[in-house]
Amino acid sequence: MSNTLTLMINGQPQTVQADPEMPLLWLLRDRLALTGTKYGCGMGLCGACTVQVDGQPARACQLPVGEIGSRRITTIEGLSPDGNHPVQQAWRALNVPQCGYCQSGQMMAAAALLREQPKPDSAQVRQALQGHVCRCGTYGRIEQAVLMAADMARQEPAR
Known about the structure:
Elements: E1 3-9, E2 12-18, H1 24-31, E3 50-53, E4 56-59, E5 72-74, H2 76-79, H3 86-93, H4 103-116, H5 122-128, H6 139-155
Parallel strand pairs: 1-5
Antiparallel strand pairs: 1-2, 3-4, 3-5
């Protein structure tokens, strides 16, 4: 059964026909061509599909579109229009990804952490990214990048 849904995605209303039980991940990738959000395990365990829902990390493979309502969805494509969010800058500066598959989910979780905790310590970073699997094992660089992004964000002029 397909319904007409209007969702706020990356700051823009998107009207789509979708089964309310369809996972947000499939809507993003297959219907809206927002392919930065990745399919990993399909069970909400690996974190590759992490997006933000009202600023909080959420596993898109487990979130039915019919449950979103008026909440705001942000994908990696919407994190920064020009790719200059401090998390994105730090990721590039430290050459964090190897294959890169898990990185958008890691970055979305990191950006949410920094919004809530502008000056996290290593333990808080590890806690926020717990459950995000990186098969390449770049965990050390990921942690360094989040801490670097926190420093960069504190140095940015107020917008």
